[in-house]
Amino acid sequence: MMRSAVITWAPMSTLAFAKYEGLGNDFVLIDNRHTPEPVLSAAQAVAVCDRHRGVGADGVIFLLEARDADFQMRIFNSDGSEAQMCGNGIRCLAHYARTLGIEPTADRYRVQTGAGVLDIDLLPDGQVRVDMGAPALLAGEIPTTLAPADQKVIAAPLNVAGSDWSVTCVSMGNPHAVIFVPDLEAIDLERIGPLFEHERHFPERINTHFVRVLSPTHLQVKVWERGAGATLACGTGACAVLVAAVLNHLAQEEATVELPGGPLQIRWDSESNHLLMTGPARTVFEGTLQLPPLGSSSTR
Ligand SMILES: N[C@@H](CCC[C@H](N)C(=O)O)C(=O)O
């Protein structure tokens, strides 16, 4: 018997967004002050980040109300997983907050993140400086099983894809593995990146950075991000790279971290033990998302 197909079109709701980028690490930003949880589900964030059928982005960032800060940041990676922190994203969010009429105090915002409350300074030249807090170095804090939980992971041996690597792990709220190599051209990121991300010693997966030391104040990086793949820049990663370089006696406490999308200035302040990251953030365009109602199945 022939059946006739019934197509029901769910009514669309709309949601305003702004697209921003920091060194080519790009985000869809959403003013989420009206509800305590992100207005998009993880699956909707994946759809929005899709570079063919969505807006296209490395992640979706929500600006929410905060009790003890100017506002709160939450971020979904392009695969829908939630991360604790995003260095490039928080610079973008600071500029976005200003367009929403949230006024900083003496050009400074205090922002609640999964890595604690961070101070963000809007500099006169348009750049943004973020106090990224202190790095966490113990294996249990990363987390990784490459060492006992109460020990640091500095130049630990790890075999991935049949090769031996020397891995230093740093958490900036989110987990990073840093590997110093003599030649970045030799790194096939699309092949090796996912193998590190899902390696069994990293129970919450890992952001991976391959680093060539150009000088003690100049580090060049290739980035594979947890939940987003190869990106043009990673702010938390740039901080982790500087920390790892200092711990391996390869860099000074202040350096330029050269990412595929451009440079970040990173300083590890010896007095506070905090990382200070300075870099740009830029608005690209604004728009309106067409969304099926939450909880509805696809209308296609
Ligand atoms: N690109 C970001 C980091 C985003 C989160 C990361 N992929 C994770 O899952 O931890 C940055 O600039 O720091």
UniProtKB/TrEMBL annotation:
Keywords associated with the record: Amino-acid biosynthesis, Cytoplasm, Isomerase, Lysine biosynthesis
E.C. numbers: 5.1.1.7
Primary site of residence: cytoplasm
Cellular component GO terms, alphabetical: cytosol
Site (Could be important to modulate the pK values of the two catalytic cysteine residues): H176, E225
Enzyme class: isomerase
Residues forming the catalytic site: C86, C234
Keyword Cytoplasm in record: yes
Family matches, as Gene3D superfamilies: Diaminopimelate Epimerase, Chain A, domain 1
Self-association state and partner proteins as the record states: Homodimer.
NCBIfam families on file: DapF
Family: Belongs to the diaminopimelate epimerase family.
Protein name (Swiss-Prot/TrEMBL): Diaminopimelate epimerase
Record organism: Gloeobacter kilaueensis (strain ATCC BAA-2537 / CCAP 1431/1 / ULC 316 / JS1)
Gene (name only): dapF
